[in-house]
Amino acid sequence: MKKLFVLAWLYALMVGCASNHVTPVTADQITKGPESGKALINFMRPSNFGGAIQSTVYDGDKYIGTVSANTKICYQAEPGKHLFMVIGESADFMEAELVANKTYYVTVAPRMGVWKARFSLNPASGVVSDKEIAEWDAATKEVVPNATGLAWAKSKQNEIMEMKKEYLPKWNSKKEEDKQILKAESGK
Known about the structure:
Blueprint: H1 2-15, E1 22-24, E2 39-45, E3 55-59, E4 62-67, E5 71-77, E6 80-87, E7 91-98, E8 103-111, E9 118-123, H2 130-139, E10 141-145, H3 147-155, H4 157-172, E11 181-182
Parallel strand pairs: 2-8, 5-10, 7-11
Antiparallel strand pairs: 1-10, 2-5, 3-4, 3-6, 6-7, 8-9
């Protein structure tokens, strides 16, 4: 329990004001679809719940971006298998099998934590209606990591990997039906 408290405290200190880690895209920069040969994943947070707390999203050990209330990160990924991670008070994970030239939607869902919000990655593609996904997509503003966010991620890499080391074995020990999995066939 002491180790968990220390990790939560360290994360609270290192997050700071993460909203300055991203920059909204301009109208001409909005992601319209997957790049040729890539899979596009929209990590959306269409909720204000836990709005003051930021979450950071990773593809393996690679920082993708920081997602806060009513924002989204549009990530161009290589096709194939991925293990995505979201960090808040704790770390949570989602497996994905991605197909080139397909678009996928994932919600970054806040949930109650001990000290602050925790987050989960929930596949929306193939799970909720296209109408609901379209509403969430319209309600979120696309952002991209900026120099401050990239520098933050680099400076906090060791702490983030400690959280991954702490929580990945717990996630791996879950039953398969209890793990979040983004299926290849759910892409559009």
